[in-house]
Amino acid sequence: MDQLKTFHPTGIFDNIKVLEFRDDVLKSLTDEGKKHILLNFSGITFMDSAGLGSLVLLLKTVRAHGGTLYLCHVNQQIKMLFELTNMDRIFKIFTTEQAFLEQYQD
Question: Which of 49, 55, 73, 79 has the least CB density, counted as fewest CB within 10 Å?
Answer without folding.
Answer: 49
